[in-house]
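pasting for ref. prot 1 ->
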Amino acid sequence: MLKQLKRLGGDSLLYALMNVGTKLIAFLMLPIYTTYLNPSEMGAFELIESIVSILTFVIIFGTDNALAYYFYKEKEEKDKEQFFKTALSFRLVIAMVFFLIFIVMGPYFAEVFLGSRDYYSVVLIAGTVLISEAVITLLLTFDRFNFKSKKVAGLTVFKLLLVALSSYVLLKFLNLKVESIYIGRLISGLVVLVFLIRPLFNFLSFKFRKDQLIKLLRYGAPLVPASIAFWIITFSNRIFLSMFESLESVGIFGVAIKFATVITLLTSSVQMAWRPYSMSIKDQPNAKKIYANIFYIILIIGMLGLISIASLAPFLLKFMVPDMIYMEAANYIAMLSLGSFLSFYYLIVSVGLFLEEKTAVISIYVGISAVVSVILNISLIPLFSIWGAVLALVISYVLVNVLIFIKSQSVYYIPVSLKKLLIPFIGGVISTGSIVIIYMYNFNSYYIFISWIFFFIVLLLTGFGKTVLNFTRGR
């Protein structure tokens, strides 16, 4: 038992470090991208990325979760491997279909959405990357299920480092612009496949068992709508910005949101730990009080983080991105960080749905919020430009949290005061927004201290110190 716990702890720590490492490397590439790409080119990159991300969801089609289920359910090793062969064949077929669509429709897509057929080559390279990623992801998933965590983490970080290096070389010396990023990804993917050549030949087969494919799709397909809905909330704003504004606006928005997602360096580790922790204490007599305190404490930490980001965003952006053409992005970083935090916080307040096995409603509520997101983007972007996209993102995630919290409370009541959550949340948003306005209109920087003082007064009114004390004492 102790051996298993040690392995679980070691693997969890390794994957957490891998997750943080990959996000950090991606973030540190931002100064390079913004040095060699103008806002319009950054906008094209962001737009292509948004399309690639949704196609990745479709290619996987929930089979990753299905593989996890059937891998540990099957007893025979050959049956486990056959499930992966079937999944790989399915993913490759879908990826190749998309690649053919890119070949045929690429010029039209490049002209309509990217403003020039010159981006057709980038679209084709991105389609090739989709195919290589479909293979690599599945092979690494097989190793992860076999507890080869060091291999998975090592190859993942190595791959991203190789992307960074090759992209930099191509940008600096060949001036290939957006193509450099996707050529870099393709090169890194091919190199990683060399290390995975043995399992690749073992799994590569376009023959698959129909019964296994049906099982995989039946298990995984219900998870796809939620993934697509989250994509709509998080990524569709780039498409609407390109339609109603310009690629330059998409580029500025993309730089801002890359800074905003840095907050996930902290939330991702909490997210990984929360599910097992919340399940492990569910039978304790004071479990509900612990959940209530955690709701409040994580919210307060999140708000403090947002106010800190708002205070430091202009300086961090100027340090990371010296080109003044991108400085407008500083206006949006804090509020986009709020969206990133809320995209994580719903997982905390949904604990009751997981405990009572009522998670199916999450997809419904995320779907409703996705529809609202589309309406808000269409309505707000023509009126408020980039701020419209920011507001659409934040409001949609607020709605996700409210709907899921209310439903979770109805099936598993946790004694947390709604007022105790709302007051610091609203206070944090007011403080964050006021700091953003202070920087936008060049007011005296001393007013920032007033925003901080205001929030600390809010904390005192909601009894933050007492809550932390009770939590540390296990009450």
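and prot 2 ->
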Amino acid sequence: MDSVSVSRTVDASPERIREAMADVQRFMAAAGFDAVTVDGDDMTIVNGFGLAAIELDLTLVDRPDAELAYEQDDGIFEAMWTTYEITDADDGTRVTATTEFALDVAVVGAVLDATVIKRQRRKELTAQFDWLESVTDG
């Protein structure tokens, strides 16, 4: 499994961060995906990479150590999940997002590798944190 993690301290209360993240549609869209559909606990995201588009079917899951978590049901990964943790910090609230994934080599092939996925995922998570700061006045 490969992993990518991004953390940021946001100048807002944990309650305000949780409230913003609870709007899953807007929170996921803030990552910059081309399309986001949320229906209850089921989500579909579409993201273009050059000439190709990747579509993932995801499900929100309960994880005791995470404020928000989802895993892939169908898509390019053999396995993929993301967790968002919230902890108190002296100067705000620390938000940490971690994505773990295993590539399905038969599907991905030479077009995408773990380095490309990690770089793209960091960009998406950073955009979500930028959005959190903007909506929480952080």
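The mean pLDDT is 91.
The radius of gyration is 15 Å.
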